[in-house]
Amino acid sequence: RRVMRSHWTRGCVCVALLALQGLAEAGFVRPNDIVGWWRMGEGATWGGSSWTIPDVSGTGNTGTSANMEVGDRVTGYIFPNRPDATYAMSHDGGQEYVGAPYSASLAIGSSFTLSAWVNANSFSSQPMIIGRMQSNPWHHNYWLQLTNTGYLNMGFHSGATWPQLTSTSAITAGAWYLLTGVFDDAANTFALYINGVPSGTN
Fold first, then answer.
1. 38: closest CA among 100, 91, 113, 128?
2. Could you read off the pLDDT of 13-42 as tens digits, one per residue?
3. CA–CA distance, 168 with 182 (Å, rounded to integer)
């Protein structure tokens, strides 16, 4: 099963973050709660046919690219309060993605947070930002994605239901955003943030 996946047909991802058990507001979580932290460009190595993306959370969920080229690691970006984060991975077509193999550490059991820096060139493919995928039958166990009109959507599969939330505001193509989704298991609520600003809860 492909567990972690970040992909779309047009756009860049700089940092992808997955935290379990702990909660976050605007994407800030306790370091011990982080189970997946892929900084994409920083530390990425090209192996001749794919990129290896280290997981700096310490849990060992290393990412490997699929259908990507050596030129898909791009530079020249400066992020707010992160002058060291100047690289990103460009997903420029052909179902390109970065995936991590199955790991129990990436399975949700209660509250969780998904967060990523994202720059989308278009929304026509409803780009998936972070998702845990499985087969038999194929579906996403949890996801953070954009709709085809640029709204943020987060949800997960819970037995026969698909609880989810869509943001109250949309992003603009061609600009960088910090996109964050939080699920609070105790309160049974979602909360979405765009650049740290609340954009929907239920």
1. 100
2. 655 666 654 444 444 455 677 888 888 877
3. 15
| pLDDT at 147 (0 to 100) | 95
Alpha carbons 105 and 21: distance in angstroms, whole number: 11
CA distance 84 to 140: 32
**Contact present, 55 and 42 (Cβ < 8 Å):** no
Burial of 136 (0-12, 13-18, 19+ CB in 10 A): exposed
108: closest CA among 175, 174, 35? Answer: 35
- Alpha carbon distance 168, 166 (integer Å): 7
Question: Quick one: which H or E segment has residue 167?
Answer: strand 164-170
How confident is the model over 182-199, as a mean pLDDT?
A: 93
Q: Distance of alpha carbon 78 from its chain centroid, rounded?
A: 19
Single-letter amino acid code for the residue at 2: R
